[in-house]
Amino acid sequence: MFLFKNRTLLIATKHKKEQVLAPLLERALAVHCIPLTQFDTDSLGTFSGEVERENNPLTTLRNKCAFAAKAHGVDLVVGTEGSFGPHPVYGWLPAHDELVMLLDLKNNIEIFAREMSTQTNYGGTTVSTYDELFAFAKGKGFPEHALIIKDKAQEFSQCIKGIQQENELLAAFEKTKKYHQNVWVETDMRAHLNPTRMKVIEQAAGKLINHIQSECPQCKRPGFVVKKVIAGLPCSVCGTPTESIKSELKVCDGCRYEEELIYPKNKTTEDPMYCLVCNP
Fold this sequence. Notes:
- By secondary structure, the protein is of the alpha+beta class.
- The chain has helices at residues 18-29, 57-72, 130-139, 166-177, 195-213; strands spanning 8-12, 32-35, 76-86, 94-104, 109-117, 124-127, 147-150, 159-163, 183-187, 225-231, 245-251, 258-262.
- It has three domains: 8-120 and 192-213, Maf protein (Alpha-Beta Complex), CATH 3.90.950; 124-188, Dna Ligase, domain 1, CATH 3.30.1490; 226-274, no CATH class.
């Protein structure tokens, strides 16, 4: 991309995400990536709960990129922001929602991508015995994936993070159990201690690169991507518009050129099982 070639790009993370992000971005955009050293991203929120995230994930990510760029005196930055919890559709499954953003202050460009994945070891539970502790640890990919020990899930007074060795896990459990009947154990979701999360970050970065490389046909601005989906795919039996996607609308953030893609899923009609007339 001519807008980014040979520029310095800051990776806004303190948790070693540059290990997967930098090679992809340097190869795709011809930039020179540098790591974050002048801003503490944990000040905007921590997974373990010491610092609550005050804003929604997208606003937090936008602030992370802007604050990091200002601290380093650069005008091009990439950052990510992860969220974990029940899947928005399949609520019985834990989900990982990773946002990744490129912020170009020089050209006033903001491009982001999102990866929603059920490939996560996210979770936590109360334990009171060694057997319960190690059953949880085994199920969460320990020791390749780190764990956290607390005295309780919320409003805790003790929090031991980044546990990656069996002896460390035992020591943290015994230290906490000495003063509390039960112990809370949870997965450490920081990227450098969670290989599964790092893979999802890599997938999100791939989407971001695709978005960046999608240029507006009119002004060549990067980030010409789908901004709106339009429902109304007709039922194959009665022709009534359904809630399924009929078209997608790409919009340029620069010149506002629009392009509508009809039948993006290569379907011209929808199964009547999704029709409110045929299947009320």
